[in-house]
Q: What sequence folds into this?
């Protein structure tokens, strides 16, 4: 098994399987090459599983048909109506104000909330189920109360959406495929 080692002042060994499938070992300076090799050998099953998952994701991305510019524009128009209504409804429930609502075709984010209260949402959310759109809207609106991801923030989300973890899992499992629909 080939791997690359990066030594630093860290205290523990860590493995990273990079998106291209290569293996990176982060190591404290004092750990010997023999110990690193044993660590890698001990985790071979995990490494192979991660590499297989990455290969599967790449195959799924390759099989996805990107949206046309017209389809993307139609999604953005639909998103403006749908998400604006969700923002109004949940802002009232949360008793928060907000600024402008903008729809974009973002490459990595589903939504964001600026310090001025402006909300941005990815038009690709329209390809997700309604409960996922609810979660992203509530998540961003909760940043109007907590501009972080502290336990207090998550308590705010949970107060409105007790099963928000289901939507988070859906995005983890399906989000990359949706993002790959964006025109290349």
A:
């Amino acid at each position: 098994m080939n791997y690359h080692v990066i030594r630093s002042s860290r205290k523990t060994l860590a493995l990273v399987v990079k998106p291209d499938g290569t293996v990176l070992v982060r190591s404290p300076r004092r750990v010997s090459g023999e110990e690193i090799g044993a660590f890698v050998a001990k985790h071979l099953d995990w490494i192979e599983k991660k590499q297989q998952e990455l290969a599967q994701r790449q195959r799924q991305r390759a099989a996805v048909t990107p949206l046309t510019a017209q389809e993307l524009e139609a999604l953005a128009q639909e998103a403006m109506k749908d998400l604006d209504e969700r923002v109004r409804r949940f802002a009232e429930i949360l008793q928060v104000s907000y600024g402008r609502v903008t729809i974009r075709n973002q490459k990595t984010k589903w939504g964001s909330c600026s310090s001025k209260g402006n909300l941005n949402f990815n038009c690709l959310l329209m390809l997700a189920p309604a409960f996922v759109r609810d979660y992203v809207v509530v998540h961003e609106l909760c940043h109007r109360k907590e501009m972080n991801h502290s336990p207090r923030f998550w308590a705010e989300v949970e107060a409105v959406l007790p099963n928000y973890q289901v939507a988070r899992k859906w995005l983890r499992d399906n989000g990359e495929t949706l993002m790959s629909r964006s025109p290349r």
Remarks:
- The chain has two domains: 4-63, 69-179.
